[in-house]
Amino acid sequence: MESKGLQPMDSEQLRENAHKMVDFIADYYKSIENFPVLSQVEPGYLRELLPDSAPNQPETLQNVLDDVQAKILPGVTHWQSPSYFAYYPSNSSVAGFLGEMLSAGINMVGFSWITSPAATELEMIVLDWLGKLLKLPEDFLSTGQGGGVIQGTASEAVLVVLLAARDRVLRKLGKNALEKLVVYASDQTHSALQKACQIGGIHPENCKLIKTDSSTNYALSPDLLSKAISDDISTGLVPFFLCATVGTTSSTAVDPLLSLGKIAKNNGIWFHVDAAYAGSACICPEYRCYIDGVEEADSFNMNAHKWFLTNFDCSALWVKWQFPPVENENWGGILLEFEVKDRNALIQSLSTNPEFLKNKASQANMVVDYKDWQIPLGRRFRSLKLWMVLRLYGLENLQCYIRNHINLAKYFEGLVAADSRFEGCKYCLSCQLAHLTWDKPLLGLVVLSMKCLLNPLEKMGNKWVVTPRIFSLVCFRLLPPNNNEDHGNNLNHDLLDAVNSTGKIFISHTVLSGKYILRFAVGAPLTEERHVTAAWKVLQDEASALLGRL
Amino acid sequence: MESKGLQPMDSEQLRENAHKMVDFIADYYKSIENFPVLSQVEPGYLRELLPDSAPNQPETLQNVLDDVQAKILPGVTHWQSPSYFAYYPSNSSVAGFLGEMLSAGINMVGFSWITSPAATELEMIVLDWLGKLLKLPEDFLSTGQGGGVIQGTASEAVLVVLLAARDRVLRKLGKNALEKLVVYASDQTHSALQKACQIGGIHPENCKLIKTDSSTNYALSPDLLSKAISDDISTGLVPFFLCATVGTTSSTAVDPLLSLGKIAKNNGIWFHVDAAYAGSACICPEYRCYIDGVEEADSFNMNAHKWFLTNFDCSALWVKWQFPPVENENWGGILLEFEVKDRNALIQSLSTNPEFLKNKASQANMVVDYKDWQIPLGRRFRSLKLWMVLRLYGLENLQCYIRNHINLAKYFEGLVAADSRFEGCKYCLSCQLAHLTWDKPLLGLVVLSMKCLLNPLEKMGNKWVVTPRIFSLVCFRLLPPNNNEDHGNNLNHDLLDAVNSTGKIFISHTVLSGKYILRFAVGAPLTEERHVTAAWKVLQDEASALLGRL
C-alpha cells in the first residue's frame, strides 16, 4: 500500500490509533447510563445514514468514530448497561476486554497445535483451572482422561457432542439407523438442542421434549424420562442422547442430574449437561450442589461469556473420553460394546486430516488439535481472555461478583413480593427461612434439608405461583385485576413493551404453563442496588399507568 | 466486587489498563521480526511454566504481561510476521484491530435485530458494499433478492448452505431420502466440505470428490461432473449440491464456474462457490474474471479474514433467496417443484423461534434475524471491523495491497525459475508473455486470449511441471538429484522441516499428483520484497546443505 492513509500494519500507526480507540471505548463506558438501554430505532434506520458503497479513498479514524457516535450507538442495545436485565447477561470486563485485545493483536489461527502451541496449551490449562473451580470430576480434566475446549456458544457445544454421540451409535448400528435415534430433554431446554437435532439429521419427531410443569418447578422428571425411554425401546427406537439443563433460559429450572444421569447410564445414552448460564454460580460452594451428579455426565458446558466476566464468545465445554463404561450395553434391545476407539468419539466425529495440514506433532499423536473438537477449522486465541479474567480477578473476587448479583436479585424479589399487584415467588415459611439464610451456607443447608423434609417439592407447586428464584433471575408478572386471567397475558405483554420503550431498562419475557411471565435477570457488571431500585420504580410506574387505563 | 484489584468494568481502570495493552501490542509488532516465525517449543512446554490452578487473589496486569512475554509468545507461531508464508495468510491490520477492539468494547450479542439493530443493519450494508466491490450480481445483495451474512469461517459457510440445500430437497422427497443425496466437488476442495457432509449426515460414499490432475491444473472438469451426475441419477441417487472452488488450498486451482453452474442449474443442484482465499483478489478488475460465472451460483463465500486485512474471524457469505428457477425440475428422475417458500431455504433450515426470543420486530417479519442464518445463536459485532477496513483503507489502497502481494509472488516465482535445482512453474512462450504482461491488464488479456487459443489448457498440462501461479501462492519443489523420484518426496519433506526449523520463515506443503510440493503463500501485511529475498536465501541455503549431505 502506498503512503496514502494508514499502512496495513504499522506498529506506530497502530499505537496512535488504538490509543484513540481506547479513549473512545472508556468514554462509552463512562457515559453508558445516558443511552436508552434498548435501542429505539426503526427497522432500516441505518441504510438512510450510510453511503451506498465503500469509499475509493481512505477516510480518517475520526470520521469513523464520529459516525459510530452519531449513527451506530443509537442503534445499539447496550448489553453492558447497568440497567440491562433482559435474557441473560453477556459480561464485558476490563480483564475480558484486555484478553480480547491481545487475542486480536496476535491474530493467529490456532486450528492445529503447530499453528500456535501456546494457544492450544493455554486453552487446555485454563479449562483445567476452571474445571477445578467448578469441582468437576477429574475425568473431565486434561490431566485426567478428558479435557476442555472453548466453543463459540452453547449451541455449538451441544451440537458437537450430539454429533459425537450420533456417530458413535451409527458406527455400531449402521448409518441407516439414523431414523431410529432418539434425543431426550425437557420442554424447557434451550432451542439450541432442537437446532442441533435439525442439523444432525435427527428426525424431528425423535427429538422428545418431555413436558414439565410447576410441580417440579419446570425441571425434567426422571420418572417421565424413564417411561419415555421404555416406550421408545419397545417400539424399536434407539435412545442415544439426553440433555439436562442447570438453569433453564426461561426460569433457571434445574434438572436433577444424578437421577437423570443414572437413567442415561443404564441405557447407554450420552448425557450432556447444559449449565450455560448457571454454571458460573457453581464456583461458590453454596451453589455447587446444583451440579451434583455431573459425575454421571459425558459432557458439561458453561458459558464464561455470560456471567463470568469474559467477553463474548467463550463457551467452555468439557468431555470425558471414557464413556460410557466399557461394558456391554443394552441399547434399544441391541447389544452394543464400546471399545477403546470409542473413547474419543468427539474427535472421531469431527476430525479431518487433509494433506496441507499434516505436520510432525499431529502425525505423531503428541498433541491436541482443537480443529477436531469443533465445527469450524480456524479458531481465535480465546483462552487468553479467560486466563486474564481468572488471574486479574482471582477466585474470591469472582465469587463476590456472583453473590452480589444474586443478592441484588433477592432484593428485587423482595420488592415484587411487597407489591400486592404483582405475583412473584411466594415462599412457604420454611422456604422463607431458607431464603433468608441462603447466604449463610451451613445454616442454609440445614434449613433447606428441613424444607425438603417438610415440604417435598412436588407438593409445593401451587405455592409458587410463578417459579422460585434460584440464581439471579426473578420471574414475576403483574396480576390481572379481578383475577381475570383472560387479560393477564396481554397486560404483561403491554407492561413489557411499556417499560422497554422508556429506554430506562431492558427486560425480557417467557411463557410458563401458558402464562406470560416477565424475566428480570441481574448480571451486568455495572449493576448496583440503585439500578435495581430504579428499575423497580419504572415497572411500578408503568404498571400504575397501565392499570389506570383499564 | 470489593475494592480489591480491578473492578468488573470501571471506565477509568479500563482506560488505564487498555492503554498499557495497546503499547504491549504495538511493541509486539515493532519487534515481530525478532521471533522465530514458527514456534519451536516442544509439546507440553506450557504446563511446566504455569501453576496448576487459578489464583484466589487478583494479580496485576504487569504480572500477566510479563508471563505473556516470557511464556506465551515463545509458543506463538507468528502469523503476522513478514516472513510467514505458510497455508494462507490471516491478516491483521490497524483498521481490523480497531474494529475488533470496538466490537469487544460494545460486547453486544446480536442474534436478533432487536438485540442491537445497528449490528444487523451494518452487516447487511457492509456486505452489500463488499458484494459491489466484487461485482456480485444484484441477486446476492440485500438491496436485491438476496443478502450477505458474516460467518466465522468458510467451514461454517459451506455447512449452512449444504444444510439449506439438504433440507430443501428433503422437504420434497421425505427425510428418508437422506441416504440418496449426493454432493459433488473436486478432490482439491477444502476438507471443510467433507466435514459438512459428515455433520449433515450425507453418506460418506455420496460425497463425490471428482479426481483432478495437472491436465486441468487441478480444476474440476465439467465433463467428468456431468458424467458423474448422469451415472448417479441412473442408479436412483439424488444429486443436490455442488461446491466449486476459486483458489484451492493446495494450489489455487480455479474451477470453471460458468460451465459448472450451468450443469448445476440443469440438474436442480445447489451451486456453492468457495472463494475463501482468492475472493479478495477479485476486487481488482484484472482478477474479477476468475469468478465469472458466479451469477450461476446459489451462494458465494470469501474470507475477509484471510487476505483482506480484517482480523480473524470474518467469513463473508452471500446467498440468493430465489433459487433455483421456480419451475418444474427434473431431479434425480423425480419431478420437483420449488415454490415461493423455498426462496429462503437457509432460514427454513436454521431458524428457531423460542418464546423467550420473540419480539415485535421479528414477529412482524420486518427485520433480518441473523441467528437464522448461522449455526450458533449468539454473534459478535463483526461487521464493525470489515466496515473500518473498507473505510480506513478505501478501495484503491486495498487493490494496491492485493497487487503488491501478487507481484511479490511473481518475484519469488522468478527466483525459483532461475535456480535449476528447483522446479516451479515452467511457462510456455505464450504463458511467459501472459506472465510478463499480467500487471498490464489490457495487454495481459490479449495475450491470455492468444494463449488460450494457441494452447488449450488441456493440452498444456505437461508443460507446467508443478502448477501455475495465479494469485499470490507459488507451488514449487526441489528436484531430486539424477531425477530419482524415489527420493523426491522425502527430500522436499526434509527441506520443509529444515527451513521451518531455522525459525526464519514458515512455509507449508501439499501433495499434487503424488508429489510432495512446497507452498510459498505471500500475503502477510508486513511482507516486503526484502523478506521474500531473505526467504529464498534460506531455502537455497538449506537446499544446498541437504543436497550436499546426499
Protein architecture, described:
The structure is a homodimer of 550-residue chains. Chain A has 550 residues and is of the alpha/beta class. Helices cover 42% and strands 12% of the residues of chain A. Chain A is built from 17 helices and 13 strands. In chain A, the strands form three sheets. Chain A has a seven-stranded mixed beta sheet with strand order 1-7-6-5-4-2-3, with helices on both faces. A four-stranded antiparallel beta sheet of chain A has the order 10-11-13-12. A two-stranded antiparallel sheet of chain A has the order 8-9. The N and C termini of chain A lie far apart (66 Å). Residues 322-343, 434-440 and 451-464 of chain A have low confidence and may be disordered.
Kindly state the number of beta strands of chain A: 13
Biggest interface and residues each:
A-B, 163 and 163 residues
Which whole number gives the mean pLDDT of chain A?
90
Low-confidence stretches of chain A: 322-343, 434-440, 451-464
Topology of chain A as a string of helices (H) and strands (E): HHHHEHEHEHEHEEHEEEHHHEHHHEHEEH
Give the percentage of residues in beta strands of chain A: 5-15%
* Shape, per Cα inertia axes of chain A: globular
- Termini separation of chain A comes to 66 Å
Main sheet of chain A?
7 strands, mixed
Name the strands of the widest sheet of chain A in spatial order. Answer: 1-7-6-5-4-2-3
Structural class label of chain A: alpha/beta
Query: What is the overall number of helices of chain A?
Result: 17
* C-alpha-based Rg of chain A, rounded: 25 Å
Give the oligomer, counting copies of the same chain as homo and different chains as hetero: homodimer
Helix content of chain A: 40-55%
